[in-house]
Amino acid sequence: MKYCSTRNSNLNKSFDEIIIEGLAPDGGLYMPKSWPKLNTEEIFNNNISYSELSTIILSKYLGGTINNSELEKISKQTYKVFTHEKIAPLIKLKDNSYILELFHGPTYAFKDYPLQMLGNLFQHYLNKNNQNITVIGATSGDTGSAAIEACKDKDNIKIFILHPKDKTSEIQRKQMTSVLSNNVYNISINGTFDDCQNIVKKLFVSNDLKSKTTLSAINSINWARIISQSVYFFWAYIQANNFNKKVNFIVPTGNFGNVYAAHISGLMGLPINKLFVATNSNDIMHRTISNGDMSLKDVKSTISPSMDIQISSNFERQLFESLNYNSKDLNNLMKSFLENKKYDLSGKILNHLQLFYKSKSINDKLTLDTIKDIYDKHNYISDPHTATSLSILNELDNNDINIALACAHPAKFPNSIKMSIGEYPIQPKSLKDLISLEEKYINLDNNTELVKNYIIENI
Prior knowledge:
The chain is α/β, with parallel strands linked by helices. It has helices at residues 15-21, 40-45, 50-62, 68-79, 112-129, 142-151, 170-177, 193-204, 207-210, 223-240, 257-268, 284-291, 315-322, 327-340, 347-356, 364-378, 384-393, 414-421, 429-434, 448-458; strands spanning 3-5, 8-13, 30-32, 90-94, 97-101, 133-138, 157-164, 184-190, 215-217, 247-252, 272-279, 293-295, 342-344, 357-361, 401-406, 442-445.
């Protein structure tokens, strides 16, 4: 398996190169040059475990850079830290309607599933090559804590995580900033998540920084994260145990990584009918998919902060695919979008998107109403991000298997739950204990040079 960049389709790199780099030198995102097909009959009809499924899927993308026995060990090690026996359990609400719970990892969010794997893959390749790296990432809430949990105390990794000041929940912030490991650095930025993400992208093309350290990305721009996330879409379908039906997934969407992982699952053979993209009031993905209106607006603060995003980095991968891997056209499109803050998608591109995706924007009121409705009907408490997907699930009336993704534990957003159902969710002990823990982070202005200098000082 070889990889190119969305901005250079002639590039030809192996998996062990692209996992460490994360972002391509040209600023593009890595993509496989072909899509592997899985033997779904073998997967669906055998009593397979989550770690075995992970090994099968990842092996298709690693191109022999890790042998299968080593990959099996890494997979088993990765999922030992998850607390539910099924790793990612499927919860039935009613006939054909399910919730896939993705919050049984150490930080109670779906980011644990790919990031625990990515941390262990990093460790494998770094040990093999006697190499050190500097990991840089931006978070809108959950990526940061999951990335830190995966990389803390690793001797050959230093990790710097940027988060927007006062724009995550208190629990989300403290899950990051209360980790006092010597290799962990948290940076609060006076700005939005998009500002944080923009700084990270500029750092990755900074020759000054690259001359002093090897940089690696841990955001969903790293391809290893996308393939790791694709595992639980197959796992959900296996648990539904009705292989004569097609499946629809409803995915709360910010940076487009999770829903793109669902999409590539379909390309690999999972019988997906439609992917429903759920956004909050930051609805650029809804407008883009529904009518081609890819225009930037100001980021709004909502009760689902991990989705408070306007520039969805992984959407570049989907555009590249929709453009038939034409990097010249992709470069022109992205240049126009960044210069003009808008782009009108139409014709073949929009038609291609709508083959796979539908979308809806869910505001805070509807989010709160959905939390209450699901609680009243099913005695199930969902966090605000999950509620955006459940709002769409409530509307579906078909004979497919319909699965909404629960991306975070409700206890991470206690105030929103209280506002909706009149009571706080039960908190796991580790989240309760966060309130009294010491924090360690630095606050910086929205300035790439300031962040770059801080990283250089600490590497």
